[in-house]
């Protein structure tokens, strides 16, 4: 809103009780001010309550073309009073206005949800405003509270909230924001000083308590004592004693106030009443000076059914924003181990959060029993039951601690002592739900450590030090087993015992250090020694145990999954050395390319795809130990170009944004292991792409490229390579993957349907539906990240599972799929399809062929191109429809007499009705296509995304079908030929030009740049002279991707008579010929010329060089190879036109027809 008044002095409308209400604001008298506007009721008989609004007018100074100041006004309309509820619960409120008699008048009532802002427009802020509120759990305010006083006096900072059942008092706080004037909008916020949040999903009770003061806490020195600081460092180390006190907890002296939970997850409380009653120092909930709060005031927690408040936490300790471990006592000396920490809500309420210390997750697929080590009661932990150790048929395991991050193994002994079970516990740190996350899984061969027994005679047993006897794991000769610490809180050392007939030899090793230890002497025998060596393989420490016999003899190690107790007698193992011994020598092969390009040429032949990769790295390593090999692939940048001519989507695949040079676009790691079974073992498979939230893979599909790829695959007949020539039964191998890790992948898919270039009968019933709804624009597809361990299934089942997972990811977000539908593109395709069907009803063969040639042209690039091509199609439809009424009967009578005349009359009537309708639909289709192209350009400009360009221009493959090395010069000439615009009606000045006139009919041979901005192109069918569109105005370098040249004339080989070299009028006799004269065969009935008025064409060449001679030689060479005077019929195949599948059913090539007739 703009006005002419430059007066911008701030004026505040201070409206008092004696002033009359303002009922209107005149726009032409605007000034910077805040006014209170009253809206009287429309029908005073039904309602006497008026609406009040606060209007703030402000302006910015702008300057017009004459540099005169103009005010740009901004009007902000808001409610005079706003009530913001920052409590964790909904409240019911009533707003009262004090009348002149002093009695309160009810103006508004309602419910304010938690975190919401209520606009109150029924009160006059010039008067005193009162409020009363209540809560559904029994809380009510004590009387009415003054929330707004125009005089600004006696406004309380809070009020009392009383619980009706327990009579507990709660001090709620008020915060006011009244603006700069009495007419400004006023905001009143209600919040509670303290809030207890139960994030443990457990029934808990809370109590405000007085606790014992720690040493030095009541002095004037900083309240955090040295003992507490020392306890901080001690808490980070494993606690070995179960009777040690937790940091931050103190014994409770007395309970001051029990907080009712009422079954909710949040409990409100305040400390003002306790401070007044106990004589503690006063404390403001919003102050940052924690020294004002007494360290003897705290909060205690227990299980809701026990009411045993034994240990409390000081509020001063919570103010330090550290996590404190506390025990919530229950019955029978049980307790819940919790973490307490303090956060801020809306910068006003201090939230005391209780969350579990450890969250146990069962991913075993069977039920698990969990209990405290010194109690008999237990809880059932079902599979995938997040927050809640024995299993059915097994005894209780040894106790373990959860105080640090890592991976541990737990051994279960069966009740019948026949077998054992090994489980893995992965302890994660820093999760949002708890302090630690303990995940129970089945043990896999991927673990922090691996123990390999290379001995030929002795079995070894392993366990962590200070473990029980049932923790021993037996490892026969030639076997390996994964290993992890049974308890992360104990000493990290490994005990290795050798099983012999008499007493076993036991030694302790630090397996975190890669070294070779002194041998162990067995039974005091000089020839019986055990050697222990620790090596690093990737992220796994490998402990190799060998005797003096096998230390120098390589042997194959077999994964051993059974866990046996020391001294348990099993059947003897017949162990033999494998024929394929383990190779210790490593071999690494790496291939690194700064830039790598792959060109895909089909059977036409034509280059249809070009793949460009930057910093391509491929490596293969073998001999990494235990038969492990690794394959790595890393690509920094990848782009796939669509090299079909006249495609609107030249880039098929690329990254949405440029990838950081230090990062990568695609990385894949596959680790395989050779085993003696039918399984294919892959310990690790990982696929990673850049961060999907910031980058996505852009896929642009133009329908013709799909059919070209399908045609090429059908021609290759890949089944001949996979077809079995034997009668052996095919085997579906078992795939075992230790760890599968794939990152999130996002795609943005754009699909452009082109029905005119679709093979006949393709898609069947779905053809019409795909034409109408198949176009998409930035369709978002998300493949979720996946991390799976211990995958073991048949290859066919694995492939089916992967495809099913991808299909679920695509279909799980239907709104994203619908948002990618291209409405304008689908409308254009549908109109084009209907127009094609109506054109077929006219039974006019020439009209149908002309329309098919029109469809093979390049797509429109803007709204102007769409209107121009649509108008051309409409003009042709009207012209053919009107003239067909007269020409069709005459054509029919000339062929079949009276019967043909009557048929021609019918065709003429049908054409007069169908062809104009088809032209109108083509006009709508092309206009819509142009609007869609303009929308895409505007969207690219807004998002600062440049036009997608090919890495290089498409390769040139001539009519001889010989694949030569890439030539940039010839590639530029081929683009000039494909983009050339030819006139259709009115010669070179025709505005209805055919874009890409020779793109699908001619094969490029050579081109030459001529003076005056002209270009000569030689194809296997003709000679073409082009004119750059900007050369007549201002010469500039040709942009091959944007600026098409205009066709001045073209001469086919059948219409070319002779070629003559000549000099120009100003050329001297010493200079070479600078003119090339083409004499035409004007009498030839099959002559095909574009607006040819004379029988000769003159080509002006560079007079300072022998360019005319070079062009003469090139034309003679092409004429001798592809002209009508060919050497013989055997050479026809090298001169025939290259038939393109996307060029339409009837290409316009008189040269092809002429050669075919002569060959016949």
TrEMBL record:
One of its GO terms (biological process) is protein targeting to vacuole. Belongs to the VPS13 family. It holds the Pfam family VPS13_VAB. This is Vacuolar protein sorting-associated protein 13 VPS13 adaptor binding domain-containing protein. InterPro entries: VPS13 (IPR026847), VPS13-like_C (IPR056748), VPS13_VAB (IPR009543). It comes from Ceratopteris richardii (Triangle waterfern). Coiled coil: none annotated. Transmembrane segments: none annotated. Residues 1-16 have a biased composition (Polar residues). Residues 1-20, 1122-1160 are annotated as: Disordered. Residues 73-486 form the Vacuolar protein sorting-associated protein 13 VPS13 adaptor binding domain. Residues 952-1063 form the Intermembrane lipid transfer protein VPS13-like C-terminal domain.
